[in-house]
Amino acid sequence: MKGSLLYEGKAKKVYSLVGEEYELILEYKDEATAFNGKKHQTFRGKGRLNNLISAHVFSYLKLAGIPTHFIQTLSDTEQLVKQSQIIPLEVVVRNVAAGSMTRRLGLEEGTVLPQPVVEFYYKSDELDDPFLNDEHARLLAKVDQSDLEKIKASALKINRHLQVMFSEIELRLIDFKLEFGRLYDGSIVLSDEISPDTCRLWDQDTNRKMDKDVFRNDIEDLVEIYEIILKRLEAIVHV
Ligand code: C5P
């Protein structure tokens, strides 16, 4: 049974579970935000799409042997996860230059990177999620270098699996953001969500943008695009 509301973020609510100390319920909301909450809109059906897309992606990764917090979906907008202490880092992996990387480094959007780049940002709305080097990450996220190395290696492994998965549904994985959490036993697992809110996905043939950039830059209808992604994932992954 759903317990009390523990936390409400921009896109999700987190509830406790009565009688289950180590499990939580994530409820996905119909909200889309961009530019650290400065742009905001409600899209009917978005919560369902993010919940189900993320459930498919986590199921795929679980089968590939990646430790994750995901247990199962409970309804169209809810999923059951293992409770973890979120490490306050946004771990971004990039295969192709886009977004903040083009602005910061002057690379042209679409430049294929010779090898994937892993970046850390500090999860802080107040500070606008600043870019961190390893020393900053150790200082602010209270992780040691061996944890950071494990997180980087895991992010790169996840990237390899996701590139294969998205290419099976005719999408190029440009970049994405991951979050990791610590379970009660101290082990680090993949947490949060993976969806078109947290990835850049371009059509393999046309480079059409199939992710939250359609909302950020007012390109196309977000719900229609996310529906296409869910349908394609349902054809290749069983939850
Ligand atoms: O904005 P930037 O280019 O740094 O984003 C890199 C990737 O991380 C994009 O796929 C974006 O959707 C994702 N991201 C995210 N949440 C953030 C910042 C970035 O999911 N707070």
From TrEMBL:
State its Enzyme Commission number(s).
6.3.2.6
Query: Which Pfam families does this UniProt record tie to the protein?
Result: SAICAR_synt
Q: Which UniProt keywords apply?
A: ATP-binding, Ligase, Nucleotide-binding, Purine biosynthesis
Tell me where the signal peptide lies: none
Q: Which residues form the SAICAR synthetase/ADE2 N-terminal domain?
A: 5-232
Query: Where on the tree of life does the source sit, at the highest rank?
Result: Bacteria
GO MF annotation list = phosphoribosylaminoimidazolesuccinocarboxamide synthase activity
Name the Gene3D superfamilies for this protein.
ATP-grasp fold, B domain, Phosphorylase Kinase, domain 1
Using the record for this protein, list the coiled-coil segments as residue ranges, or answer none: none
PROSITE patterns noted in UniProt: SAICAR_SYNTHETASE_1, SAICAR_SYNTHETASE_2
Report the catalytic activity: 5-amino-1-(5-phospho-D-ribosyl)imidazole-4-carboxylate + L-aspartate + ATP = (2S)-2-[5-amino-1-(5-phospho-beta-D-ribosyl)imidazole-4-carboxamido]succinate + ADP + phosphate + 2 H(+)
Which biological pathway? Answer: Purine metabolism; IMP biosynthesis via de novo pathway; 5-amino-1-(5-phospho-D-ribosyl)imidazole-4-carboxamide from 5-amino-1-(5-phospho-D-ribosyl)imidazole-4-carboxylate: step 1/2
Kindly indicate whether the keyword Cell division belongs to this entry.
no
Q: Which PANTHER family match?
A: MULTIFUNCTIONAL PROTEIN ADE2, SI:DKEY-6E2.2
Similarity remark = Belongs to the SAICAR synthetase family.
Q: Which NCBIfam families has this protein been placed in?
A: purC
This protein's name: Phosphoribosylaminoimidazole-succinocarboxamide synthase
The protein's gene is named purC
